[in-house]
Amino acid sequence: MSSRRSKRTLVDELIREFRVIGNQDNAFDNLAAERLGVNETDLHCLNIIENSGGLTAGELAALAGLTNGAVTGVLDRLERAGFATRVADPADRRRVNVEVTGSFYEHAARIWGPMAADWQSTLGRRFTTEELERIVDFLRATIEIGRRQLDRLRET
Q1: I need a labelling partner for 76 at 20 to 30 A (CA). Which of 9, 28, 87, 95 fits?
Q2: How far apart are alpha carbons 81 and 72 in whole angstroms?
Q3: What's the CA gap between 145 and 87, in Å, rounded?
């Protein structure tokens, strides 16, 4: 008898572990938001802005699942905190892009820098380059699934 787990069992295990890491990430972000002096929604938006390299307020609203009015309030608070700025789009002066500031990166380095170093060290030791490529593929597949399911919920 084989001790190998079935593909279905492994996918179920991945889902469980993915949910655990999501909950752990939320707990970390709650503390990080507190340290930054912002609320969790504002931190979520900062994360989206930073990961995108900058985007419009409308794009931020769509990605964050917020109304345009709510995003205006978020951006006002983030600008007052010195963590985000609105800049004119050089290609279309009617558009305004939102970017994170150097001040945000300074604060973020103290919070997430040690975590990034731990990721590099631990994952670099534990996995081969090929295994890391597979993990990246897995995460990209989960992002695709999440986007499809988010769209499904928006439509119902």
Answers
A1: 28
A2: 14
A3: 33
